[in-house]
Each structure stands twice: as C-alpha cells, then as structure tokens.
Amino acid sequence: MTELGLFLSKKSASKAEISRKTGISKSRISELTLNPSTQLRAWELYLIALALDVDPGEMFKEMYKDLSLKND
Description:
434 Repressor (Amino-terminal Domain), Cro/C1-type_HTH, Lambda_DNA-bd_dom_sf, DNA binding
C-alpha cells in the first residue's frame, strides 16, 4: 500500500466517492493507493484533498513526513 493508500485508509475514504468528486478514474485511484512505483501528481493530490475536505498542505505533510534532506 502507498502513502496515499494509508492516508485514505485512516480517513475511511471511499475510492469510488473520491473518483466521482475529482474526475480521477477509479483505476487510477486504485493504482495510486496500491502501487508504490506510481507517481502521484501534485494536481491529483490537490483534488483528492479537496474531495476529502482536508488542507492539501497538511495532507502532503502527513503523507511524506518521513522524508528529509540529506545531511552534508
């Protein structure tokens, strides 16, 4: 499962409802939630956040909280 998949699971979000609200196909939503090699586009994250009624920045921070810059 991807970071998006985990986030949606925590929110008990329906993939079908997100697809309906955003216009992103159900198959693309499934791919984004199940396949770690699939790249999530910024506009997709933004639309999904709007569909969930969450702040896109907070959603981004939550999903990628484990990322950090390399130490010099």
